[in-house]
Structures are given as structure tokens and as C-alpha cells.
Amino acid sequence: MRKIELVDLKTQHYKIQSDINQAIQEVMTTTSFINGPAVKEFKQNLSSYLNGAEVVPCANGTDALQICMMVLRLKPGDEVILPAFTYAATAEVIGLLGLIPKFVDVNEDSFNIDVNKIESAISTKTRAIVPVHLFGQSADMEPLLAISKKHQLVVIEDAAQAIGTEYIFKNSQRSFCGLMGEMGATSFFPSKNLGCYGDGGAIFSKSKELAIDAQMIANHGQSELYYHDRIGVNSRLDSIQAAILNIKLKHLQEYTKARQTSADLYDERLKTIPQLKIPFRAPNSTHVFHQYTLTITDRSRDALKNQLTEMGIPCKIYYPVPLHFQKAYNLAGYKKGDLPVSEKLCNSVLSLPMHSELEEDQVNYICEVIQKFYKS
Fold it and tell me: Does this model's pTM top 0.85?
């Protein structure tokens, strides 16, 4: 059995190495390292994958979120609603722009923002909602969009972990994550389902006007060279990373299928262990399994993590501290029990190895170790 990795980028790379090398060499030959042909090609290819959506590549997923908020002209002092159980980048850009984070608890099953808790967090200062499609599954967008329309709020989707995930509306209409609100953001960090070999990100929108503004802001606020219509940032996807992403985008569907196959095998082997709660599969969302995250229903999470590590199985806690308890973001003085589900999950979740190169014998070994742990 091959060594188990939390994310096996080496094996994935070996399979496409010749194509990657050729793509990189083409960039080196043209020396168009910034906004070169590879970037324009990737922009078009990703747009086609997303059924013609507007795509603006940028330097990373955090910048993508920040640029969305700048495009939508959120101002210092405006409140932005977001889930407390997610990575800090979502709150980070809110703080950087002088906005006020309003944390909402999450659904215990899906890990995504609890739509039933949103309206109670809305005030006269609220301007936006940022749902995070966590671990590869969509937030419940239909009622969330109804709330945003009712209260005239903009929606910026954090789809950094959900490239290719589809949400299914009650009328059977389907939409990719990142394309249901005004704007969406994603990340191409190497460990993501579609990852480059450095940093990268992109902004999505159905609006050409908003995309043009995002492109301007990402390039120093320039409408044309040396003409600065907006205060902007320097956030560009470089050509080498775009060339790599052009190759990997061709394989994204097979990568997703491989993740789903491994998740199905995990489910089958682990569903009968009473101390474990396998990942919830929402009927109105596909799941691309950026993470395969268990909820440990007793107090054995840390002991299980230690056992897996001792047996050569990497695993990780996403996330050990909810955002409302982080020193940088607890401006409102949140106390224990204010957002109980997020607090509970931080003490009970554990993510197992999940990537496109997992093999059946590896998953079986991981499950056997877990089964033996709970039988002992």
C-alpha cells in the first residue's frame, strides 16, 4: 500500500507531469508571465465550465473575496453576516475593509450557515451575507436568497471549497456555487479540488458590469493603462499558474468523481459506528468532498486523532476555534454558548484523508483502524 497522504499532490502531478511541463514551457517561451495568453485561455475555459459565467482570475481566494466587497461598494461600518464555523479568510477581508462581521451559527448536519438564524442577525447597518459552501457542499441558497431580497442585501458566495458543486432549487433548476448571489469567490490553493502550484483565485458573476469592475480593481483600479478610475489592488493570476490550471481543469470532473467514490467507501465502512456521524448529503446539493469530515459524537475525537496519527494516517481538525472566539474577530465580546453549534463542532469534527488519488486499499486501512479503535 502506498503511503497515505492527507492530500496527495505528488501522485496527482506524476499522472499529468508531461502536460504540465509542456504548458509551463510554453509560458517560458513566450515570456508573457503576467496576463499572458495562458491567463486569457484559462479565463475562457473556466467560464465555459461554468456555463458561460463571467470569470475574473486573481492572485488568491482571499483577494477574490475582498475584491467582491470592493466592487459592491461596501463601506466601513457596514455589517456583513457570515458563519462562525469556517476559515478566517472570510472574516479577514471584512476586517481589512473596516466592515463589521456579524457571526451566525451553522447547521449541525451540513456545517453550513443556518439560514434560520440569519434574520435575527440583520440590523439597519447590515449590507451583505457571505455564505461559505463548506467542505464541498452548498449552503441552503434558496431561502438565503429570499432573505437577501426581502432585506435588500447583497450576497457574496465563498466557494473556495466548492468548485463544481451544484445547488438544486425547488423548481429543479441547478446552479454552480458562486453564481447564485451577486458575486462569488474561489481559491486555487494547491490542496483545493482545482489547485495550482502556488496561489491563485477567481471571482465569478453573472453580471458583465460587475466583472468589468472586478477586473479593474484587481489591476490597480485601471480602466486602461495609467488611467485609474477606482482605488484598486494588485491581484493577478500569473501565467504559469494559469497554464497549470488549464491542464488540471480538463481533469476536474474525474477528480471529483474519484473523491465521491472514496467518500462512498468511507460512508459504507463507517456508518455503523455509533460514535461517528458521517458527512451529511443534502438532497438539494451535490457534494465534491473537498474534505471528508466526521463528527465524533462522544468525547473520543482527540484520542482517535492520536491513534490515526500513530498508525500513519494523517488527519486534521477543520477548525479548532470558531471565528467568534478568535482574538482578531471577537470585537463584540462573544461568550461561550452564544453560537453553540459552531462551538460544539470545533470540539468534535475530524477530517480524514481526501483527494483524487486515494486508493481503495488505503480507505479500507483507514476504516479498519477506526473500527478497531471503537471496538477496543
Answer: yes
